[in-house]
Amino acid sequence: MRLTVFGATGRVGHTLVHDAVGQGHEVTAYVRDPKRLGIKHGKLLVKKGSLEDGTTVAEALRGSDVVVSAIGARDATHPVSVVTHATRAILAAMKAEGVQRLVSVGAAGLLPHAAGGLTGEHGLPPFLRHAFEDHRGALQALQESELDWVVVCPPVMPSGLKTGKYRVAVEALPTGGRQVYAEDVADFTLKVATGTEYHRVRVGIVGD
Predict the structure, then answer these.
(1) Which residues pair with 29 in a beta bridge?
(2) Mean pLDDT by 10 residues, the chain (208 residues)
(3) Which residue in 13, 24, 107, 118 could disulfide with 8, CB within 3.0 to 4.6 Å?
């Protein structure tokens, strides 16, 4: 399978690229700074570019079976729109190139709340507010599109080891879990990207 990965130098994206080429998939990693990726493989094509450049974004995902976005703001202590703008740019390029499927890494705050609306709209700690708003804008762009999308929604995401032990739920966060390793999020996101089980849904994930 051919994948294009945005956010490939981040914790989830980097692990996903490493695992994907190891499984024999052809991967294009779209990055600002190729030196930060640090992965070399015969199945990997590294393309340098900016998400503001629609032409190179379209070139990067041309011919792909699925696009993965693991983009996140490095600093969300102030209002940001990194994820929202990136998602819109990727969706526009996908539409232009006829690529239909996008798997994105979001956050648990994007999942539905029992009282209505999104979980992040109910009692979210102030330090997470700006990141949530950014991801909410991206979710809205996905929902307004006609493409086939999935948003993987982890809570707290420390770095650690890929355990393979995690639980998932459609449109909900599995009960009893408060965190999940970034490496396990990458593992599940790759499974979603290369599988056919989920379509136009949010999927919560927690460590087991």
Answers:
(1) 5, 46
(2) 97 98 98 95 97 96 98 85 97 98 97 95 90 97 98 95 96 94 98 98 96
(3) 13
Q: What are phi and psi of 172, to 5 degrees?
A: -165, 160
Which CATH number does the domain housing residue 192 bear?
A: 3.40.50.720
Number of domains in the chain: 1
Structural domain span for residue 178: 2-207
